[in-house]
Amino acid sequence: xxxxxxxxxxxxxxxxxxxxxxxxxxxxxxxxxxxxxxxxxxxxxxxxxxxxxxxxxxxxxxxxxxxxxxxxxxxxxxxxxxxxxxxxxxxxxxxxxxxxxxxxxxxxxxxxxxxxxxxxxxxxxxxxxxxxxxxxxx
Length: 138
Fold this sequence. Notes:
Blueprint: E1 3-4, H1 7-11, E2 16-19, E3 24-26, H2 27-36, H3 62-71, E4 88-91, E5 106-109, H4 111-117, E6 122-126, E7 132-136
Antiparallel strand pairs: 1-2, 2-3, 4-5, 6-7
């Protein structure tokens, strides 16, 4: 289970945390879970896990997938609410075209949208809010 919460929210009595792929919980519940569980704080880009692999590796690692889940709880396609735990890691710039296997070049997409990303009849663009919009080529 992955629970996300901002430090400020954790310190508040009425703060809110989010279970990835689940419902919001209170900060008090998050603190209770932390007392009884093995805790692994997520520090993106920390020394303990390699998150950016460049061109050395083609497939995303488990650590990178966890980091992507922290960034996007659902498929990143506009309006899609498929849980990120069911999504596939996609290279924004395809690995075969020189794209790196790193978080800046990654998107979580459900199977449907991942296939669409590789379908030459569709264009895809990242919106300012981070969503990915697919449009049929004309």
